[in-house]
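Extended Data, panel c. Modelled sequence:
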Amino acid sequence: MSAVEGTDSYDALAEDLRALRHAAGSPSFTEIAVRVGQVREARGTDPGRARPARTTVYDTFRAGRSRMDGALVADIAEALDAPDPRSWRDRCGRIQHALEESRLRPIATDDVDDEPTRDPTPDAEPGPVPAADPLPPAPADPAPA
């Protein structure tokens, strides 16, 4: 199994990026940012917008991320001479999709009580609902110029 096909988590992806960086001779994060800029310029990106900040590149290698920019990951992989940079972007997308799916799944619990919960407040008649403050009048439309 290749590094790109590893465990689907951003921490594992960052670890694989660190291994790719090491295999490429451990260039500095500034050098990686320069290379990413060159990759993007070769694709036609405006030179003034092609190079990411060094800290942005550094953060991509850091564990504990809750999201990653798949295009940047692919550009870093290409800048570090990975054989299939697009697979890195695709992996990022799969991880993000899995995270979104896990957030949407209801949490199953075994200790759910089937009895309805009783309101702990005493049985009292509800009081009157206070009237809402009237809305201020809408501003007049300005006269046509």
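The chain is about 50% helix and 0% strand. This feature is highlighted in the accompanying rendering.
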